[in-house]
Amino acid sequence: MKKKILWVLFGFFSIIIGLYPLKYLLINGKVGILNGKPEWLLSSVIWYISFYIHITFGGVALLIGWLQFSPKLRYKNIKAHRIIGKVYVASALFSSFSGFYIALFADEGFWASLGFSCLSIIWFCTTLMAYLTIIKQQVIKHQVLMIYSYAACFAAVTLRIWLPVLILVIGNYGMAYIVVAWLSWLPNLLVAYLLTKKLLK
Question: Which DSSP string corresponds to 119-156?
Fold first, then answer.
């Protein structure tokens, strides 16, 4: 029962936050985090394109990636698993690559920028390595790396959970944002480590 509840919550948050980029794609003008960005940054074509690549492909990766954790899909419908996997890999690589660029301009300066940059690098590298290992038919390594990849991807969810909590606790948005730049993904990787210990035994 507990596993089913966690699975439902896992899927629910993945879908809800995966659809979140629609807010930016369907509404004209400044919405969400764009409201807090300076005009000089919003006028940058490279940043603007990178931002929309990041949120669009990141949304797709989050939206479909959780399905790959279903044993039924992996073993009973391998064709669907492979198709979803290829779409996830492509989306994750595009989103993490563009995410690295926009992380350089993150709010609150160096430490927030460093946190999100590290996240982008980890997401890109684990995803690429996961793809290369399955080409070589190294299934266990592929599964381990994909768990780490989606743990990085899921930072989009944990960020939105942690940030309001941190604002309440710290009482300062700027400091809370710096902390969440790290807290949004470091615990996720710890969970990934605990999950993959069984696979590596």
Answer: HHHHHHHHHHHHHHHHHTT-HHHHHHHHHHHHHHHTHH
